User: Fold these one by one.
Assistant:
Number 1:
Amino acid sequence: MVKIGCEILIENMPRWLKRARVGLLANQASILRDFRHVKDALMQEGVHLEVLFTPQHGFWGDKQANMDESPDDVDPATRIPILSLYSERREPPEEIMRRIDILLIDLQDVGTRVYTFAATAALCMKVAGKTSTRVMVLDRPNPLGGEEIEGNVLNGEFESFVGLFPVPMRHGLTLGELMLLANEVCGFSCDLEVVPMKGWKRRFLFPDCNLPWVLPSPNMPTFLTSLVYPGQVIWEGTNVSEGRGTTVPFEVMGAPFVNTGALKEKLEGIDMPGVHLRPTGFRPTFDKWAGELCRGFQLHVTDSGKLKPYFTSLSLLWAVLQVHGDDFRWLPPPYEYEFKKLPIDIITGDDLVRKRLEAGEHPREIEHQWQEGVERYLDLREKVLIYC
């Protein structure tokens, strides 16, 4: 059985923590196995919470993406102030951090570089280093496991709120390990401690953990969503819908101009393991193409162990460019507080991916190009691995 970091902390509650002034970075998915929220479990143990911080989408996960900011709030049950870190501020104010002795971070990450929770945690660490505030990460599983790595490593010229660390798209680290990397390699230095899980193995996907799934963001409703997300997120930088406004976000892609038959023909001969592309139609209720019939594909995962989500979606994108070049568009900025660079470039972490696709380069060739960077990353991540 996997025990997550917050459960380990509560079972072994240090006396000093009950005397400390504590802040908590969390959201609605920060629950224990018994569905108690971590804030309630901590308070039941006598921990004094001074302030709650919340990442993108708000404390209740009610806000959509891309600069749909959440306001500050007050927890109605406890009257503890909730400070949004996805608004005009994306770092905690220094004066607030100076009023706490330790910041606890308990967030369910999804194992993909562009998911912003890791950036929020790292920016908290940066401020904590200035204010001499301790930081403790209560670790949780990477839903995608800790073995499979995929995608090009972030080019430092394309650092952004959706990419602060030199890691591939699917990085194979838990949030605790990623924050160790941020602390020891990326300069987000502070007095950091990770409370590791017990029983988690790198080969585990989320269903192997026997833990409840609570959607960490409004368009991450299931574990299956997280499986395809490392690839399907690239559509956010295009005029092709990634399924926002449907009941299966990221599991579908499409647009009114898509010809699925022509795309199928173009993709013939490209091996995309672990997935079946089923032609479908959908009508988003909001976001891109709201109210219009989009034709495209639903990604049905047939073997999660063999699935290569980033390669799969890049292959789909390559085919769309080849077949629908006259109708396809890269979306302009702003995107996640970047106002100059193209959204697709900060999502993929390097403009070379876009340029190679535009030049008609085959996805296999692009995949080959990123392997050298992945090898360097694997050496780097060895320094921060906690689990076997």
Note: The beta strands are 21-25, 48-54, 73-74, 81-84, 102-105, 134-138, 192-195, 252-255, 275-282, 294-301.
Number 2:
Amino acid sequence: MSERLVGIDVGGTKMLAVAIDRSQPSEVLEMHLVPTPSTSDGVLSALRELSIRCGVDQRLGIGLAGLVEGGEVLRAAPNLQSMIDIPVRAAIEDALGVTVRIDNDATCALVAEMSTGVARGVDDVVLVALGTGIGGGIASGGEIRRGVHGFAGEPGHMCLDPNGPMCVCGRRGCWERYASGAGLVWLSQQRSLRVDGTGNAITAEELAERARSGETVALEVWAEFSEWLARGLANLADVLDPELIVIGGGLVAVSDLYLDRTRELVVSEVLGGRSRGRIRIEPAHSGPSAGAIGAALLN
């Protein structure tokens, strides 16, 4: 008998909801994408509305961009500050009368990729979610690692340059200031590429279009983005020695602009280089939907 599962990925700028069938979780039955509201009441309202639109039955999974304590509440979230200490699980269970499970959004994406995606059958894997910021999920020996507080998997806040640009977390030079969606925009601004053709602030989507049309400055931005991405991935590989690194998040949709170059650069950046064998770096099989699919699969 089929069971309809609904998952919602709440990121810094977008909320993605999907409905899947437990028996065929890789096939999305329904999908809805909306901007992330700026207030906690707005986010809770959007969670309720998206759940209903996806036909939630008995179970709902929610992935939040930040440090989730005990599957209950968000304790720190540089890119989702309005939701800190908000009792999301209780609020949605009371409103909809369904069982709710909550986890970090990138960890949810790892759940999806280990269940039905590119990491299926891989015991040692790191997922790096490139969105507004950078999230992460870690598996070792076939088990997801959460750390003593349950907060493991926040590589976006590794400091690559203590004199670098200010991060939303309050420190300087975090990896996500260079190799996330927001970081990509910052890199473009350093080259005076600040607005699109209509005068609006430049976006990652606009930079992708410009690069594909051959615009020199946009290509330079993506090349530098690849360098910063590779530097952080090499640091993770030095510490965790994974068999596979999965790239997820919204920017996986434009991975053709940076992934090949990043793969080559990681070889030169990681300790041991070519002597350790090539580390597989692959896009998430579920693409930007991995977080929402993984949320739906939370037990």
Note: The mean pLDDT is 94.
Number 3:
Amino acid sequence: MKPIAYVSIHGGHSGRFCFHARDRLEEIINRYIELGFAWVGITEHLPAHEERLRYPDEAEANLDCGDMLAAFEAYIRECNRLKEKYKNEIRIFTAFETETYSGYETIVPEMVARHKPDYIVGSLHHVDDLGFDFSREQYLDTAARLGGVNALYERYFDRQFEMIRAIDPAVVGHFDLIRIFDEDYETRMKQPSIRQRIVRNLELIKARGAVMDYNLRALLKGAREPYITAPILELARKMEIPVIPGDDSHGVSDIGKNMDRAVETLHKLGFDTNWSLPRLYQWKE
């Protein structure tokens, strides 16, 4: 049997362009090459467009929206430079990860048109402009504001559905990130009001021809399994939705961690491990 190639559909956050990451982007690219990755999508975060939407660490560091936009534009230039420099050693995609807060339906298409990425990863780190994944305290506060953890899940999957319809991302990132600080997520996801939303969203992903990110960062943070949790992963397989590993690396030391486990899991479940590329934008020169 031919060895299964290492790839990352959602990776490469780096310290110069992401405040909660480490290391230079070129160091990160070199690590992917060293580990023999066939291709990698570098998926830096889209910057906040309002001060109130910054991550807590960005606000604490007094980074304003202008600073973050300048860093993002520098990221696009640097990633394109490295894509050309290392084209004979690895295939690099210059991509970015969206945010889903007020105005994204206009902002994301504008940023796509301006910066011409190879593809985008549609992600949620906010529900109704409230962050939920930065800390347990933030998660519980947001849940309380929205009416409890069940309500938070329901709103998350509703907002995810709207996001997929609005911006049509080639990749849906860490589909069930909403369970990040919920120890009872396995039971909660079986509840009819939540499960029907999950199935609805998977049907839309299938209809749009998107792929799903099998996101390994959860394991680095002590979770029992990656995003996507096993029951949802089985549903995706039955629906023939492509699922591709993403290390969601935030520094050189993250790259390749748990990749063997991910590949083995996806292979055993019957996913196609001749990894298809995500749907790429076709830009005219």
Note: The longest strand covers residues 39-45.
Number 4:
Amino acid sequence: MSKPITYRDAGVNIDAGNELVDKIKKIVSITNRPGVMGGIGGFGGCFDLSALKNYRNPVLVSATDGVGTKLRLAIECQQHHTIGIDLVAMCVNDLVVMGAEPLFFLDYFATGKLDISVAQDVISGIAQGCQMANAALIGGETAEMPGLYATKDYDLAGFCVGIAEKEDIIDGRHIVENDTLIALGSSGPHSNGYSLIRHILQTKQIPLTQTIHEKPLSEVLLAPTRIYVKSLLALVKAKLLKGAAHITGGGFIDNIPRILPEHLAARLDCDSWILPPIFSWLQEQGQITQTELRRTFNCGVGMVICVSAADSNDALSILKAQGENAWIIGQVKNRVKQGVEFSDEP
């Protein structure tokens, strides 16, 4: 008689998945906030909106994202402890630009063969990101899919829900000519443009051990995406924020126009900041044009926010008190050609 075939024979270890859940319960519990009901392990995560007493006409705001091919660098470098921060950042930063307070987060972790240690590192990073954003990690899914992913490969997706007062949702409708644009510095490329970065590394055969400003290239490229939640919510509370653009894929050129009325454009002062070394290095190594650089990478600017000119000093004070590297990067002008104009262009 032949031996019965089991799920584990097919490459799926249910016991390992259960062990992972047990190991991360304590990690997840540190992200709890008022409204969380129960713990992880159920079929769904529950959040009690009645625990939030300060909303009169609340609207739920949702976002989902991944971390792109930055994940490939994390896998190759075996540095898994910060990629979860990236995952949270890419979601919560999209929520907060609308004035929404993140409430809860869920993750999806898919792999060819579950390595409990790796998964625990990733989820620890997710929990750390949730703490930074004051969002509860209320659930997730771990999927072991041999044949679809290579043994040591994994993929991530995140899902976040936030809340905003209906009349206070930030959508750019109050932006007018001569409003001030303020930049919030990034921590590096964040989680965008990594397919181009990896293409440059492979084409030029550049090792990740090479140094940039006395730091290994791997460390610079894997620096986690900055989370701007507390800083932007401080501006929302002060009723100063008129619009905010999260500078992700598409860079300045595609993201800033998303918050501007059609008849307006952003005029950016290119002398207001110095391009961080990692971007000038990438531009040199890849012979990247200025336009391509500004449409692919954040160029050292993770957020561009809009406030009234009269409120710019107050906004800068609040942002700097929150630990941001913030500066005036430009103004809103009547649109002539494209939605973003640069001072160094004719």
Note: The chain has a mean pLDDT of 93.
